[in-house]
Amino acid sequence: EGPESFPPLRDEAAVRVLQGRMKGIQGHCNSCYMDAALFSLFSCTSVLDSMLFMPFPLCDRNVQGILRDEIVNPLRRTGFVRASSVMHLREQLTDKGPCSSFTNAEKDPEEFLNLIMQQILGIEPLLKLQSGGQKEHECYCYQIFMDKQEDLVVPDVQQLVERSFLSSDLKLVEIPSCFIIQMPRFGKEYKMFSKIIPSLELDITDLLLDSPRECCLCGDVATLECS
């Protein structure tokens, strides 16, 4: 008999199970970066459920079991995960990773994702990016980098991704199976945006390398792109 699984929460079920007091992942000892990442990756989507079950080449089954049985399943079943369960995962990451402070220090979410996806589970990178026509590089998530935009007061994710790709001269080499995006963040002192509206769908047509698009003047297939 294989490990028990619970499907991600959808629509009314998501509201019923996740809304209210004592819901979500309980924070403790600078865990917010990991709590937010785990909630985003697993509460309402199954796109990364292979992380919970697949025997990847480097896969540490102990870490995989903790992630599945102590964090994802309780989150989907009851809408609540105890801080002790996340600490159990953090202790394992500290043992397995090159860094000794996963149990107490605040980290960048990308550092956590790279460790668990690449070094502990051995998953292939999710994104292939190309910058300025140079050699492509692979990664697990994309962090939005951009200068302060005076005309964006309350942006949505679509606007932020497009402007960030444009300012960095980036293109997606292929359509990603999963597109993990880290919002711009500037610590406790300064926030670039007080709010960001989630885009429920993301149009990546203009972000794809060599994808056919129509000319904005004549409507035929475009041959040139003006930034």
TrEMBL record:
The protein's name: CYLD hydrolase
InterPro entries per the UniProt record, alphabetical: Papain-like_cys_pep_sf (IPR038765), USP_CS (IPR018200)
Domain of life according to the entry: Eukaryota
Organism: Brachypodius melanocephalos
Gene that encodes it: Cyld_1
PROSITE patterns: USP_1
Any one GO molecular function term: cysteine-type deubiquitinase activity
Keywords: Cytoplasm, Hydrolase
